[in-house]
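ok so i was messing around last nite and threw this chain in just to see what happens. nothing serious, just curious
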Amino acid sequence: MSHLLRAAALSAALLASSAVFGPVAFAEEEKAETWRLFVADHSLPVVRAIDLVSGTEIGKFDLEGYAALSLSDSGRTVFAVQGDENVVHAISSGISLSDHGEHRDIEINEPQLTSTVIKGQKPGHVVTHGDQVAVFYDREAKFDLVSEESLAQGDAELKAFDTIAAHHGVAVPAGKHFLVSVPNTEVAVTEGELPPRLGLRVVDGDGKQVGEIATCTGLHGEASSARLVAFGCEEGVLVARPGGMDGPKLEMLPYGDQLPKGKVSTLLGGKSMQFFLGNYGEDKIVLVDPDSADETYRLIELPTRRVDFALDPADPRSAYVLTEDGKLHLIDVVKGEIVKSETITEPYSKDGHWRDARPRLAVAGDQIAVTDPRKSLVRIVDGDNLKEVRTIAVEGQPFGLVAAGGSGAVH
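result:
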């Protein structure tokens, strides 16, 4: 979305507000927009909070180990998942957005580490839906459910749910039910290994299974878009649709003959349009339209292997992909093609260990933040022309990255 379009949209919103409330509304409130980057070091147990506009560090949080970061749906909480240390810390982003129909309010406070520490054997995926947070443990036969609101208040109580057997899986809150991966307990595994995933099941609020297990071999990758949740499988993408009192309904979207051999194992969900973007091997991505009658999948070839990718939550047409040659690509998801490419970093090969230090992306308003661990930088890129506008120096090796923020009225 161009800067002119964004400015026009803001002007229209202000005019509409004036028409309804008159000039008094402007006297009692002012507009504010703020974005914060939360950056995890590649090897040090630290997460830094950085103000995007000034580039200054506004918070430093010492942890117990290397952290993978995930952001809650609300943007209020950053989860620092330290799998090797069997712990998850919750960091308050200090930004709270609340909807008031004709406008949105924003409350801005200092970021801080919450008092609740979530412990379990090898925590992996942390998934939020509304106020519900599901923390899955790879080395325990359980996931924990906790309220995001209670994390902020410091009085969190965790409720445990059984996952049949320890496995590298996921649990997704879905209203009064949960979507939970299923391990294959009939396959013999060597000591220290985990069983593979064979499918997905729906469980109710008491942890009881509802209906039959849906096949999803090698289940890996999940995302939500509108009211749908999708999972990557060897057979295709499994979609969970709302099903009322009986829980979500599961539907497989097979790859069929339209795609070459491969599978989806990482998914992102569109925010203002219902679609999913997934990887398909290392040098392709695929657009998934669950309701298309004739083109469920659209494959996009990349010039080299993918390092990271992200969707623009404010501009539903735009996705960004960073490839190992250091180029950032703008994808038009409606056209299903690359429309612009620019070199941002030096090449970062995908060869080597999967957790080697490589760049990560986060979209913050009309800009894209790109970590560059070799240079100890976060590069800030214009989302329209993909040109670097400035850099932010970050101590150590900036690696994992999420962006929290937005705009609203401050009363």
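not much to say yet. The mean pLDDT is 91.
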